[in-house]
Q: What sequence folds into this?
């Protein structure tokens, strides 16, 4: 479907298949709405305006190769995104949480982050704030003071312990319905299509960004759950790579609505605070994609 | 009673007087519990109810009677309802606790009837009652009878000093309390709520929809009252009085004083299903047990502390989460000045206003810290070196990179917990990376000692 894969920014002026244009003069508008509805994968009220609003609200990671690959120039706010480690949680779960922290650090500007943990009680919380606060990355100076640190601020983090997945999903939906949060992230084992649709709709309605951080105890569970369809805007898989002690990940965009899957190697340059990402797969054109999107993203950051 | 059966009579004698008399063992605890339940039931008439062991209830109906159309109607309604629960009772309303007690028990009223002593009539009404009606112990009463003081009225002309000397000051106190010369207060079942609204129904209700609707009405009325007095509720109690006499209640709390009807109703609605209507509910009340002055929240012109969590926006969400999951499941991390990693974070209530302390700048710390460090099997060439391989949760990891040690010494100023406290041992932390790219935080517990294999633990996983 060529129309569907276009970046949505082009939607209003997108060239429509000649056949569609010649049938009826007013079918173009209908088609746009239909496409927008399809893209949203939900019953639409004002699909198109919703899209254009999403366009204004994008969080970019500040790594051009990754941001420009995403059809929105970053991750859209008010949507559900899934992040998981590749494999069982005990080894790869920390990398997935770390990757999530990068996005959350950016989203904290809008409000505190609600982190719903899988923990029976406070005493069994394994998320470690001092470690988490070291996650995040610096960006080449937008202000003239050089590097701007953007790290997760534990003071703007609210932890909720959920004993079961249903509690976590309920708490997540409540968080997404409320105002004043920058993002909601929940550690979830089982997530089906219906539950993820509810979350996606709740996120769309409130504009709060949602992350499902998948945690699987067993390898078999990981394999089964990773194959399940989820109504998320993007699905990410993060794996630690040997990096001589420094942060180094293989980041795979397994699914991206309206975009193509891709894979990067993300690492922290030795001794510096800067992160780089190099595409591991996909064609070269992806890496050298039109720079206008990137500058657009940069402008937004200046404005923000 | 007509047969002469009275407390204190032997069982055999009683059965001789009334053949076929049913005998039940006395159950003081059960009676007390039943009386307590009855007192709860009676909170429908007034929030101030005190059980009066072993067989009485005392209600402070000051300012409540108008809801029933007058004291007479209130008393009749109460007695009728008690009768419908198969309880024989008499009642009295009077200006003092002592007078009401005496009149209800000693005026000879038949069950199901009651008396009301209008103001000013107390001393006259009590004059004809026996001295036992003064809530005095049996010995004092006997003593009074012996000297011919049988009625309360007989005491009026007596010299107080003489009475006190002969029978103790308790008698004088009781007399003064009954006549209103000395103060007396009830010690109610539960402290009176700051605000309370209630609604009675002509027909008992039982459907979830109608309970929902009534709760909505009550919340609306309570919030209006709260708003008028510029107060906000910190805790709410919704009580449903059932026709079988039971009371089903739910309680919710708020993180900050609130009079916002939508917020309060949302909290109550989340627990409405816990109300058990049983055979039907005839009366419902919503009480704000605790209220505080509600200062309208305002995010100041100059944001004093940018990193603080905006309580105004988040309070409703925090309340919903806390009321469903429990307040102990919500937290915000706070730095603590401690070198021991697991002590460096304290969890505080999310909206608690605390002084923001800066997070200390530390060497690399893991993203996930295991709540309990897990013992690992390690192969290390030299005791002071990081391991070459380690086995964690049955999987062998070969170390390809390591950094350390970072020595974390025990905090000697902390008193030792009972037994061997692991946190009191010196730890040497290493950051290691295995072949697969996993980055772990290991430590060796205790200082190196001869003839003792060092113990190793895995404490965290880096991103």
A:
């Amino acid at each position: 479907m060529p129309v569907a894969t276009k970046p949505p920014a082009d939607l209003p002026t997108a060239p429509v298949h000649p056949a569609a244009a010649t049938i009826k003069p007013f079918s173009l508008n209908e088609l746009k709405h239909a496409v927008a509805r399809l893209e949203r994968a939900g019953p639409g009220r004002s699909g198109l305006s919703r899209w254009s609003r999403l366009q204004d609200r994008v969080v970019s990671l500040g790594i051009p190769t990754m941001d420009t690959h995403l059809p929105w120039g970053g991750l859209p706010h008010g949507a559900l995104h899934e992040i998981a480690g590749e494999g069982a949680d005990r080894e790869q779960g920390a990398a997935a949480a770390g990757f999530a922290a990068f996005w959350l650090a950016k989203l904290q500007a809008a409000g505190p982050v609600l982190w719903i943990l899988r923990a029976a009680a406070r005493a069994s919380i394994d998320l470690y704030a001092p470690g988490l606060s070291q996650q995040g990355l610096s960006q080449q100076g937008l202000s003239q003071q050089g590097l701007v640190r953007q790290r997760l601020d534990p003071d703007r983090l609210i932890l909720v312990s959920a004993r079961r997945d249903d509690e976590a999903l309920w708490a997540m939906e409540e968080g997404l319905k409320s105002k004043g949060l920058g993002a909601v992230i929940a550690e979830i084992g089982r997530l089906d299509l219906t539950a993820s649709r509810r979350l996606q709709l709740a996120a769309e309605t409130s504009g709060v960004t949602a992350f499902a951080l998948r945690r699987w105890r067993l390898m078999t569970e990981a394999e089964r759950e990773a194959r399940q369809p989820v109504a998320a805007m993007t699905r990410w898989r993060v794996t630690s790579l040997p990096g001589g002690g420094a942060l180094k990940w293989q980041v795979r965009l397994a699914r991206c609505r309206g975009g193509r899957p891709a894979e990067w190697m993300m690492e922290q340059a030795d001794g510096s605070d800067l992160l780089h990402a190099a595409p591991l797969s996909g064609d070269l054109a992806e890496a050298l994609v039109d720079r206008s999107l990137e500058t657009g993203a940069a402008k937004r950051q200046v404005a923000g | 009673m007509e047969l002469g059966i009275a407390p204190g009579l032997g069982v055999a004698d009683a059965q001789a007087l009334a053949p076929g008399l049913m005998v039940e063992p006395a159950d003081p605890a059960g009676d007390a519990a039943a009386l307590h339940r009855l007192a709860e039931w009676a909170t429908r008439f007034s929030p101030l109810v005190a059980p009066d062991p072993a067989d009485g209830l005392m209600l402070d109906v000051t300012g409540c009677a108008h809801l029933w159309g007058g004291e007479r109607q209130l008393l009749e309604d109460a007695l009728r309802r008690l009768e419908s629960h198969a309880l024989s009772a008499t009642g009295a309303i009077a200006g003092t606790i002592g007078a009401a007690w005496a009149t209800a028990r000693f005026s000879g009223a038949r069950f199901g009837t009651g008396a009301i002593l209008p103001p000013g009539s107390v001393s006259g009404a009590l004059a004809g009652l026996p001295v036992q009606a003064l809530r005095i112990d049996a010995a004092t009463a006997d003593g009074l009878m012996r000297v011919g003081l049988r009625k309360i009225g007989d005491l009026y002309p007596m010299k107080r000093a003489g009475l006190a000397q002969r029978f103790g000051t308790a008698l004088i106190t009781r007399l003064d309390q009954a006549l209103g010369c000395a103060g007396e207060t009830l010690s109610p079942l539960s402290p009176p709520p700051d605000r309370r609204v209630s609604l009675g129904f002509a027909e008992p209700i039982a459907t979830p929809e109608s309970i929902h609707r009534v709760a909505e009405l009550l919340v609306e009325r309570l919030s209006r009252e709260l708003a008028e007095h510029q107060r906000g509720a910190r805790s709410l109690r919704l009580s449903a009085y059932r026709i079988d006499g039971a009371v089903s209640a739910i309680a919710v709390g708020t993180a900050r004083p609130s009079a916002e009807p939508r917020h309060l109703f949302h909290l109550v609605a989340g627990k409405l299903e816990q109300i058990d209507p049983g055979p039907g509910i005839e009366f419902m009340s919503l009480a704000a047990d605790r209220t505080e002055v509600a200062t309208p929240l305002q995010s100041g012109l100059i944001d004093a502390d940018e990193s603080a969590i905006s309580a105004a926006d988040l309070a409703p969400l925090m309340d919903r989460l806390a009321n469903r999951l429990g307040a102990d499941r919500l937290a915000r991390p706070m730095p603590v000045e401690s070198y021991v990693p697991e002590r460096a974070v304290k969890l505080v209530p999310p909206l608690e206003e605390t002084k923001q302390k800066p997070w200390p700048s530390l060497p690399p710390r893991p993203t996930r810290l295991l709540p309990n460090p897990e013992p690992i099997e390690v192969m290390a060439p030299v005791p002071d070196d990081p391991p070459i391989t380690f086995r964690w949760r049955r999987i062998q990891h070969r170390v390809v990179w390591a950094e350390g040690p970072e020595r974390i010494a025990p905090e000697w100023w902390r008193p030792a917990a009972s037994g061997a406290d692991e946190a009191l041992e010196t730890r040497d932390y290493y950051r290691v990376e295995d072949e697969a790219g996993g980055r772990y935080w290991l430590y060796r517990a205790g200082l190196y000692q001869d003839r003792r294999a060092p113990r190793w633990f895995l404490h965290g996983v880096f991103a």
About this structure: Chain A touches chain B through 56 residues (CB under 8 Å). Chain A has a mean pLDDT of 74. Residues 165 and 190 of chain A are 7 Å apart (CA to CA). Residues 59-303 of chain A form a domain with the Rossmann fold fold (CATH 3.40.50.300).
